[in-house]
Design a protein that fits this description.
Length: 99
């Protein structure tokens, strides 16, 4: 059992570090049932501004210069706040990439 926990930590720790947002622009992931309006309200309540909406209704890229923006997003109802680079898989492909 201890070995399984140690292996899980070894595998998950780098992913957690990579997921931490390091800039003023972050990807905000809301509850799966959240619509775009609900997620935009979370961003607004946290004092941020939407940059673009992801490929799913519960993902939005947001920006704020406030140092505690990530914590404000969690307090407003965000489920996860990650680097926007990790959320790029949730974005639709550009038109030229689909042809």
């Amino acid at each position: 059992m201890r070995l399984a926990i140690a292996l899980a930590l070894l595998v998950c720790a780098p992913m957690v570090v990579l997921a931490l947002p390091r800039s003023e622009t972050v990807a905000v992931i809301g509850p799966p049932w959240a619509g775009g309006a609900e997620l935009l309200a979370i961003v607004a309540d946290a004092g941020g501004a939407p940059v673009r909406v992801g490929g799913h209704a519960n993902v939005v890229i947001a920006h704020s210069p406030q140092a505690d923006f990530v914590w404000r997003l969690y307090a407003a109802g965000a489920w996860f706040v990650v680097s926007p680079l990790l959320a790029s898989g949730c974005s639709p492909l550009p038109a030229e990439a689909t042809s």
